[in-house]
Amino acid sequence: MKRVILLLIFILAFLCLKTPVFASENNKFGIHISHLGDIDKAAELVNSNDGDWGYVTIVIQENDYDHDKWQNFFDQCREKHLIPLVRIAAEPIGETWKIPTIDSLTSWTDFLDSLNWPIKNRYVIIFNEPNQTKEWGNQTKPKEYSHILDQAIAIFKNKNADFFILNAGFDQAAPNSNSTMEEYKFLQQMNFEVPGIFNKLDGWASHSYPNHGYTGKPWETGKASVKGYEWELLVLKNNFGLKKDLPVFITETGWPRSGNSKLITSGYLEQAFTNVWLPDKRVAAVTPFILNYPEKPFNNFSWFDSQGNPYPQYETIKQLLKVAGQPEQIKKIEIVSISFPSFIPANNTFIGKITLKNTGQSIWGEKLFRLLSLPSPISPTSLILPDKVIIKPDEKYSFDFKFSTPSTAGEYLLSWQGLPEYRVTVFEAWKLTNTSQTFFNRLVNRITNFWYNFLR
Length: 456
Known about the structure:
Elements: H1 2-17, E1 30-32, H2 39-46, E2 54-61, H3 67-80, E3 82-89, E4 92-93, E5 96-97, H4 102-113, E6 122-126, H5 142-159, E7 163-166, H6 183-193, E8 204-207, H7 228-239, E9 248-252, H8 262-277, E10 283-286, H9 312-319, E11 333-339, E12 343-345, E13 349-358, E14 370-371, E15 383-384, E16 396-404, E17 410-414, E18 422-427, H10 439-455
Parallel strand pairs: 1-2, 2-3, 3-6, 6-7, 8-9, 9-10, 12-18
Antiparallel strand pairs: 4-5, 11-13, 13-16, 14-15, 17-18
Helix pairs in contact: 4-5, 5-6, 8-9
Protein name: Glycoside hydrolase family 5 domain-containing protein
Keywords: Signal
Signal peptide: 1-23
């Protein structure tokens, strides 16, 4: 009996590990881009073949706080249904990157919070491969990075709980040397300096390259493989007290063409997606490095050549079957104006006009946009956006609506789902014979006609 119980516990634990990281459908396909102009190629790749809402990893440097530039990029992501994974970076100094400071995190938070993101989750990767000296001011300082990461989590989350914080991806193949630190040692010193640091993360960023020397095969496992994230998760749970099931974002991976034929590189990527990353429910996204960088030092990783022609892996991955992601978007509406008579006679029908502004993340009209009226004796008609009309964030649209007053005088409420309530005072007309010819009836008709023409 004890053996049966232990077996059931083991099976339940195994099933828990396989629980999807997202409640809704998620398109795991993504790509790492370096040029904002590559967004069309990225969308065509990751949202092909039934796919929607794939991912793009993009780097923003601290000397590039250009609000209009990056808001335009986010708006394009929204229109093309791409989810940005933003990796923040300090400034380059020659061939190295400056060490970021804790003070700079506030500027980062303020800038990224000023942007209207495409979806609710605001994915932010806190710098890059700090176990390489060239990525951290020619030094490896795991304790310093641990404090930076800890403060980043606190500052971003205090600003807006929708920030979804990921660690820097690590170089899994790095040895202990003058220019690198082995990842286990780096993680160990991080956790020693800030105990429980990994439990504060929302997800795990992994650079699961087929190393060493990018000669690994798509069926290999363990550290420095296309499944290197699995080794990282085991280390975090078994050695550094990780209690969460962190969703994995493979923000860098792939094979260079040097040493491999173009078709081998393409075939390896197809096998890795099909047999490793897609079936693994711990993996939330995979953005191979890099879409379009035909110059050195990354020309061998680029998916496009210098003439703008795609290498075979682009078409291969494009043809793979995908799913339509359904990320959550914040829906917000601002009433710009509303026009209707607030003091009106009983037993009459009136037309009003309301102008709404889209202050959320979604694009009205991509799906049916309809605001139902709330139950009331003078319930207005629903507000329905006409077919083929698209209203993007910060744009406005004016809706006409009708409502009829009851026969009983009093104060009534007029409203729609999610909008404020408005009071309407209804008064009874005095009763006269031959009402079609009464002065009051003619007056009401004139008021109604005037109001209708005024709104038009």
